[in-house]
What we know:
A two-stranded antiparallel sheet has the order 1-2. The chain is built from two helices and two strands; from the N terminus they run ββαα. It is an alpha+beta fold. The radius of gyration is 15 Å and the shape is globular.
Amino acid sequence: MLRGIFGSLPSTPILTPPQAAILGMHTIKERPAVVSAEVMARPMMYVALTYGHRLIDGQTSVAFLVRLKDRLEDPTRLMLEI
């Protein structure tokens, strides 16, 4: 099982100049999720994006996180860049 650098759960990465953004990827843990009306254990990971609002618009950052989620949930899309 993959783990974040320290096996951490939710936290917020701190932005330090000259960074415009920083992505925190945390440990993967089995968590309950509803799939086809059944509760089952699924691997889940917290991801936190800290960014400078003077440089990056909120809509752009959310679009990035949605795209990242889609790629991580379907690695073939990541490999094929589709």
